[in-house]
Amino acid sequence: MSTDKTGFEIPDQMRDFAEKSVDQARKAFDDFMGATHKAVSNAEDSANAVQAGAADVNKKALNYAEEHVDAAFKFAQELVKAQNVEDMMKLQQDYLRRQMESLGEQAREFSNSATKAVQDAAKATQKK
Predict the structure, then answer these.
(1) DSSP class of residue 128?
(2) Alpha-carbon distance 108 to 123, whole Å?
(3) Which of 26, 49, 81, 115 could form a disulfide with 124 if both were Cys (CB 3.0 to 4.6 A apart)?
(4) Phi/psi at 2 (5° precision)
């Protein structure tokens, strides 16, 4: 068991249980994401020019969601291994910083993709 200066203890059995729970949840999520990616691929096969732009934006949004959930699982795995409250606080701070950086970049990419999809859809509509 780990003990910090405040007397906070995490029993080894609880740590093992938490780690197994995170691993099981991760596997279930990975299976779900595999099925979701397959469904997105199948939908894209039958999409036309207008839907292609929307599919790209949707796929990007799905990938962003997957990245954030993946980061949350990694954070949870690190958190259950923390030895004390100070480690937990440091992990939380690092996680939040990385997520904010990621969100900023993803917002820029998403905006560019959405703009391109709208422009492509407008061009396809004008050609008819």
Answers:
(1) -
(2) 23
(3) 49
(4) -100, 145
Q: Is the dihedral of CA 30, 15, 78, 94 positive or negative?
A: positive
pLDDT along the chain (128 residues), means of 10: 64 89 92 87 58 77 91 94 93 95 91 81 62
Task: Find out whether 64 and 106 touch, Cβ atoms under 8 Å.
Answer: yes
Structure tokens at 97: 């910083």
Name the region of 88 (left: φ>0; alpha: ψ -120 to 50; beta: rest). Answer: alpha
Please give the helix or strand (H or E) that residue 90 lies within, else none.
Answer: helix 85-127
- The answer to whether 55 touches 118, Cβ cutoff 8 Å, is no
Tell me how far apart the alpha carbons of residues 46 and 40 are, in angstroms, rounded to a whole number.
Answer: 10
DSSP 43-54: HHHT--HHHHHH
Domain boundaries, given as residue ranges, for the chain: 13-127
Tell me, what's the pLDDT at 60? 85
Q: How far apart are CA 87 and CA 67, in angstroms?
A: 23
